[in-house]
Amino acid sequence: MDNFTWWRDGVIYQIYPRSFADGNQDGIGDLPGITDHLDYLADLGVNAIWLSPFYPTPDKDFGYDISDYCNVDPRFGTLADFDRLVEEAHKRDIHVIADLVLNHTSDQHSWFLESRSSRDNPRADWYIWQDKIPNNWQAVFGGPAWTFVPERGQYYYHMFLPEQPDVNWRNPEVRKAILDVVRFWLERGVDGFRLDVFNVYFKDDQFRSNPSAWGIRPFDRQKHIYDTDRPELVPLLKELRALLDSYPERYAVGETFISTPEKIIQYSGEDRLHAAFNFEFTHTTFNPTRLLARILDWERVDREHNIWPTYVLSNHDVPRPASRHGFGEDDARVKVMMALLLTQRGTPFLYYGEELGMRDISLKRDEILDPPGKLYWPFYKGRDGCRSPMQWNAEANAGFSTVKPWLPVHPNYVQRNVEAQRADPKSVFNLTRALLHLRKEYTALRRGAFLPVDSASQDHLSYLRRSEGETLLVTLNFKNRPTRVNLPSDLHGGTWLVLFSTHRAEPDLLNGPVLQPYEVCVMRRL
Ligand code: TEU
Ligand code: CA
Predict the structure, then answer these.
(1) Which of 54, 89, 422, 471 has the most CB atoms less than 10 A away?
(2) What's the pTM?
(3) Residue 506 catalytic?
(4) How distant, in Å, are the alpha carbons of 123, 245, 341 from that of 115?
(5) Residue 101 beta carbon below 6 angstroms from any ligand 1 atom
């Protein structure tokens, strides 16, 4: 493959470590568990894994509250386990992306324990302290964003939980300490980073109050112009990029908080982040017209700003696509969405279990662990639903662990698991695997132009992926009825080969194929 760039041409698979595989049978997934399943991931065909936080944490936000940036939580393993995971992943040509949460630490991090102890300790200015609450800023997970500490007689700022104090990025010592953290993981062989809420690192230097807006949660009733997206950010991103570029082929993808195309344009590019998430597919409805419009937005962003698109259907913060689009246990619509994701021009991100069409678990109120779920129940039930253990086989606890897992396994695991889906040629797993392998085989799928066909259709979404010497046609029927794809006349006739289909073995392309209900088909013009 000509100049294959892993993060641009490849597919990235997100692992939520505590839910993937339990290596030591204590009910919590861990790094050795992941290492044990690298052959599974290599066979599936992914090029990189992104690990949600595995650092020491008091677990107020399940790892997104880090108490030591340069270590592994004993529940997840040791630094030696991490080194082994990286080594074994690299042997299989799988790159490793670490999740860095650099906007805030845990309140149990030694930096904060010191900072909160007095007004004149060496780290007094490592967090954001104020004598009085200076503004109306709210915390994302509920309540005001300022919490009082009697030892200092002052308030500190936290955009999320009070147990997640925001660090003071304006302090040069903090900046240096954090860039040293990045270097620490680069030196350990990490290939890239996912940066948690990177665009909120800096807050307004004058602490101005946000203007109001319409919304449900108090946090949403403000326009976030002073607590997010401050101008000091871009120079920092440039410094970070220079650090990454001092190592070969390293990568950073940012989690844009309240993502918009404008923000992504501003924060990604040659001298800043490689990519910033576009979350459109996590909330667009199952509608070909709307999905096409979103894709064309990103095609434009790339054309005009040379920013390689990214696509994701889900992550550890949102309901799974199979729960959003599937009917009961039926996977027809789930396969359409998976095929859409994997045939885009841009880097697709998969979330563990998506390749099985895993559904969200539903929990009773007293089973909920996620802090915003506890707070806003029953209006919002939190994010535990999409974090249930990976379903490996039909044995006890889905083969995830021999003991009771930290979150319940979805009861559908008896039928819906890796082993069963491997054996079923029509499964979501085999569709995912087949498309991942096609993506490796065809340059047109990775880099080829995206050219919509019959784009006024309300029923199907069809497009060519075309590169020099390769023309592929992707057709996705979004309806539970047959529909015809009207091909432009220059595509009539010719010889076509079906590379993948949920329904057919032979092409039927006289004037355009008639698609079966929810059919997914990828053909190649010979
Ligand atoms: O998420 C940012 C974030 O606040 C939302 O995605 C959030 O999960 C949603 O609004 C629910 O209310 C990142 C992480 O992905 C998330 O898991 C962390 O909880 C959060 O930052 C704080 O680190
Ligand atoms: Ca374990």
Answers:
(1) 54
(2) 0.98
(3) no
(4) 5, 33, 45
(5) yes
